[in-house]
Amino acid sequence: MASITFREIEGTSPRYWFLAGLIGLFAALGLGAAYYMEHHGHIVTGMNNSVVWGMPHVFAVFLIVAASGALNVASIASVFGKVMYKPLAPLSGLLAIALLGGGLTVLMLDLGRPDRLIVAMTYYNFKSVFAWNVALYTGFFTIVAVYLWTMMERRMNVYSKAAGMAAFVWRLILTTGTGSIFGFLVARDAYNSALLAPMFVILSFAYGLAIYLLVVIAAYTWSGRPLGDAVLNRLGRLLSVFVAAALYFAFVFHLTNLYFTKQHEVEKFILLNGGIYTTLFWLGQIIIGGIVPMLILFNPKLRAARGLLVAACLTIIIGGLSQMYVTIIGGQAFPLDIFPGWQARSAFFDGVVHQYTPSLPEIMLGVGGVAIALTIVIFGIKVLRFLPESLADSAVDPHAKA
Amino acid sequence: MNHPHQDQKNSSPAVDEHRRNFIGGSAALAGITLAPSVMVYGLAHSKPNDEPVTNKVRWGLLIDASKCAEGCTDCVTACFTENGIHLPSIPPKETDPQWIRKVELKDTRTARTQSLPVMCQHCEEPPCVDVCPTGASFKRADGIVLVDKHICIGCRYCVMACPYKARSFIHEALTDQNPDVPRGKGVVESCTLCVHRVDRGEQPACVEACSAAGHEAIIFGDLNDANSEIAKRVTTRASVQLRADLALNPGIRYEGF
Question: Is B241 in contact with B253 (CB distance < 8 Å)?
């Protein structure tokens, strides 16, 4: 195999600056929306005392879950020793940091008191899954930064495998922690399951890799660098397995609930008569986010068509956002059953499905988080050597057909 | 105006006036000196401010649903007035804070109806305290679950975790607050069991209001004190805890439903 040369992208073309400007605009709009929300209070959002986590959490949790998944490519190279993935590894680390940064920014700016970030960093309740996550996020940034250093600094290369192993284990714990934010909520019928933790790990594989593929294709196409089919084909096939596994977990999760009589009402709500949540589950999560990409990715011919591969990645992202909406907001919209066997009614909306309509500032804050993640990526690949000069088949795979 | 006393005063010797002033002044001084002692005597059951709360006490409420009148919201009004909360909008909004609410229940099998108030259940093992990342949600030694408004970051995880829908997030700026009950935009709050009144030896506002309305449906007291009315009632009559399956051991008990 030819040796791989990493080089910064030039980043001087009008296209680069247009892209940077566009992403910067959305990031600025997101920050502006956050300022507006903090100034007026959450009254300007669609959130309320029943649905306390809204659109910002859909984006934030999606980005955080995708962040750990984006690191997979690097893990396959370092931990599982797959040579072909080595050139892809630095971008994988950068994307992981960027997505986590974007997600945490949204999460933090949606706090009731974001000015108290220092309190969140200095006061810890060690029984809180949230507090564990704060430690896990900080650790993730540190470990991935060290991992990138071992990959990108030649003298440190010998430590790369060890750092990669640490990052791999850490990312599994991190996503277990993210899933447990919901899994540990004993009070709510839609959560309260250990399955949420491994399910989030599997979902992260799919979401992270889909975003990774889109970034690679965009970066190489727009910078005019060669990108062969061998890399894309391999990653596309891997992605199909992740999507299938995600569907499997969703199936087992709901099947278990359907078996338990006490869970029938919540299942009926999500699967049958929950309105937007039922639509987003079947159309968004299952069909668009699962079946459509599987049809494309399992078929070698369809997968080889770059446009269709991009389409498959986009549908996985749409499915991912739908899944987060159903999980996070659908889970809260379903009323708490404080009085089993009784029909409850009150001035505080007991016993009724809770209403939630996202407001524009919330959506802008969420999209702003995506823009912040992309800003980190396009800035990163311009100033440091994250991208190989070529990902042509001959450069990455010695056995590739000419 | 010419008053008969003034006539008398004019005719009295000067020494009498001096003595009267002296006695009056002494009485006032004695009053100022004795008043706090008398007040302290009156609050014999309250906790002095320099003494920490103790876990020997477990404050709780016993709600008799059979005495709670359908449609009566006196406890809710009293709570909101006491704690400086604006009464819920009409029709109610899901963003309105609500520390206590009246829940109307209908048995899904027999259609029997029941009415009762629900507030923070002051659990012995509160899920809101478990999940709070900063420790702002905390349980006092005497069982009262509170939010430290200074270290709450407004993440709302406690609202997600509470099985009783007892917590509210403040969605907009507040006005007309009660100095005894500090609140603030962007943080979470819930029933404090009127901790400021309890520490003065008084009863929570909802209990007082229910009693004033003649229902006597809510009893407040120390569950750990075998001689207290609440302890006697829960040991001699059947009562339930809401979501007892979660094993959180709430300090709020219900009977008669």
Answer: yes
Residue ranges of domains in chain B: 4-42, 59-255
For B59-255, CATH gives 3.30.70.20
Is residue A4, in this structure, part of any structural domain at all?
no
Domain that holds residue A153: 14-396
CATH number at residue A160: 1.20.1630.10
ipTM of the modeled complex:
0.93
Question: Is B106's CB within 8 Å of A342's CB?
Answer: yes
Which residues of A are less than 8 Å from B163 in CB distance? 186-187, 336, 338
Q: Is residue A6 part of a domain?
A: no
Angle between helices A89-109 and A14-40 (to 10 degrees): 30
Strand-strand pairing, B252-255 and B59-64: parallel
List the one residue out of B186, B71, B160 whose CA is nearest residue A51: B160
Contact A48 B185 (CB under 8 A): no
Residues 88-127 of B with CB under 8 A from A: 88, 92-98, 101-109, 114, 118, 127
pLDDT digits (tens, 9 = 90+) for B49-78: 778 899 999 999 999 999 999 999 999 999
The backbone torsions φ and ψ at residue B108, rounded to the nearest 5 degrees and listed phi first, read -70, -20
CB contact under 8 A, B154 and A113: yes
pTM for the model: 0.91
Token pair 């909360």 is found at B85
